[in-house]
Design goal:
six-stranded mixed beta sheet, 5% strand, binds zinc ion, E2_motif, mRNA binding, repeat, DYW_dom
Length: 546
């Protein structure tokens, strides 16, 4: 056999290769065929290792192959760097990137995507700076990777720049770039821009529609989510289970109980999709938020995997909203039964007890919290100011302008107080003792990251500029009220994206507002239908569909 034919045969084998054992067999064949020094074969082998990260031993094998190459081509450098990046060894990937004899756009894009996928968004965006300095142009892949990081940190300024570049390069109509732009604008709280990109796109896929529906959902615009869903169907795009998550989330946040139930039914009856635990969770949340805790509880009983702590935790959250001790205790007992009880759950229940004036229950929870020990996620907030993202943590002392920030915060708090701000939940917080920023509560003296970000934003931007903040946890009640009054006192619009949803603060009001329960008819009947539908779900046909 000629070398070329042998090489082709090996490349063909590689295409079907799905395990490391098989890779080693192919490698043996490479050696037998005398193709060990063939750079294209070695590059392909390394590339295989880069895409099969889950196969253990692939990284070491790739390094071995790479070391054997005398003068590795750029492609091999890219593959080995990607191999390290995908295995989470970002520093090694960067070292290889920095030491490549020749860097093509693939190398830059690989580095951006490694950073972005690993959640190192600041570094990903730093690559853009470097590309500009070295006069490297962007292509669709670079733009998609960078936009994903912008979306995560809420870097609207850089996102807008990338949008302009995409327009110049006529890439906006590319479905991947369009989807990434929609995602970025929506996650930065700029729904109008997301919408205009959506309208400009010539080709839209299920991801495009899902993005819009999901973003309407988390912005609390259930009616718009529904309207887009209907348009999606008219456009002939088949929804998937992600579509319904966005839709149900929108219904839940806007209090569209009946609509939520209808769509939940349609999943199986019309679209042959089996609702997952997240969909059931949305429905429990839908009832819970609307104050129908009894229905939420009945709903949990219809969940096929009833022993999933997620639904009980959602019920506990709803019990807190409606200060319902009995349901809260029930949720808690079930979390305990499942061995899934966390200190955070106890904090929630203790807040319910405190709100309902149950000192004995409160004391019990305090004890339990101490036994369980508190492990909370440290809170942080991002704010973008003139294309640079600043990160603040709770009680931040690390930011270079820290002193200035605290001084400004004092002034901001005073002005917010004169507009009507009163620190909330101080009694509970005092009783709970020392809590770090855990998404549930804080120490009275501690300063949550978004307050610092807001103070910094007010100090660093001209009057009238909107502030956009991204936070990793939920906004606590106190910070929520603080931000409301700041928006009024300083006449600024402030957009906060927290772990769950968006809050648009303007003139002392937040978009999340009060739950408007519009239609609460025939819920009892719906519950019984749901119970029936759970049964027929197993049969894959639905009586309502006939
Ligand atoms: Zn807070
Ligand atoms: Zn809000």
């Amino acid at each position: 056999m000629l070398d070329c034919a042998k090489a082709n045969a090996i490349l063909k084998l590689l295409q079907g290769c799905n395990s490391f054992t098989r890779l080693r067999k192919i490698q043996a064949q490479v050696i037998v065929s005398g193709l060990e020094c063939d750079p294209s074969i070695s590059t392909q082998l390394i590339n295989f290792c880069a895409v099969s990260v889950s196969v253990s031993g692939s990284l070491a094998h790739a390094q071995l192959l790479f070391d054997k190459m005398l003068d590795p081509p750029t492609q091999a450098w890219n593959s080995i760097a990607r191999c390290y990046g995908r295995n989470g060894c970002l520093e090694d990937a960067r070292f290889l990137f920095d030491n490549m004899p020749e860097r093509d756009l693939v190398a830059w894009n690989a580095m951006i995507s490694c950073y972005s996928q690993a959640g190192h968004h600041e570094e990903a965006m730093g690559m853009y700076e470097k590309m500009r300095n070295e006069n490297v142009g962007l292509d669709g892949f670079s733009i998609v990777g960078l936009l994903s990081s912008c979306a995560h940190v809420g870097a609207l300024g850089l996102g807008v720049q990338l949008h302009r570049i995409a327009c110049d390069k006529r890439l906006v109509r590319n479905v991947f770039v369009g989807n990434a732009l929609i995602d970025m604008f929506a996650k930065c709280g700029s729904l109008d821009d997301a919408l205009s990109v959506f309208r400009e796109m010539r080709k839209r896929d299920v991801f495009t529609w899902n993005s819009m529906i999901h973003e309407f959902g988390v912005h609390g615009l259930g009616n718009d989510a529904i309207s887009f869903f209907e348009q999606m169907l008219l456009a002939g795009i088949r929804p998937n289970s992600i579509t319904f998550l966005g839709l149900l989330c929108g219904c839940s946040h806007q209090g569209l109980v009946q609509e939520g139930i209808d769509y939940f039914h349609q999943m199986s009856s019309k679209f042959n999709l089996t609702p997952g635990i997240k969909h059931y969770g949305c429905l429990v949340d839908l009832y819970g938020r609307a104050g129908r805790l009894d229905k939420a509880l009945e709903m949990i009983e219809t969940v096929p995997s009833r022993d999933d702590p997620v639904v009980w935790r959602i019920l506990l959250g709803s019990s807190k909203i409606h200060k319902n001790v009995a349901t809260g205790e029930k949720a808690m007992m079930n979390l305990m039964r499942l061995g899934a009880l966390t200190a955070g759950d106890c904090v929630l229940l203790s807040t319910i007890y405190a709100g309902a004036n149950y000192p004995s229950g409160f004391a019990k929870m305090r004890k339990l919290i101490k036994t369980l020990g508190v492990k909370t996620t440290p809170g942080w907030s991002w704010i973008e100011i003139s294309n640079q993202v600043h990160k603040f943590v709770v009680d931040d002392k690390l930011h270079p302008d820290s002193m200035q920030v605290y001084e400004k915060l004092e002034e901001v708090t005073k002005r917010a107080a004169s507009a009507g701000y009163v620190k909330e939940e101080a009694v509970i917080l005092n009783l709970l003792g020392s809590w770090s920023e855990g998404g549930y509560s804080e120490t009275p003296s501690s300063c949550h990251s978004e307050k610092l970000a807001i103070a910094y934003g007010l100090a660093k931007t001209p009057e009238g500029t909107s502030l956009r903040i991204v936070k990793n946890l939920r906004v606590c009640k106190d910070c929520h009220s603080f931000t409301k009054f700041v928006s009024k006192a300083f006449n600024r619009s402030i957009v906060v994206r927290d772990r769950v949803r968006f809050h648009h603060f303007k003139n002392g009001v937040c978009s999340c507002g009060r739950l408007s329960v519009r239609r609460m008819v025939a819920i009892d009947e719906e519950i019984s239908i749901l119970k029936r539908s759970r049964f027929v779900l197993q049969l894959k046909t639905h009586p309502m569909n006939r």
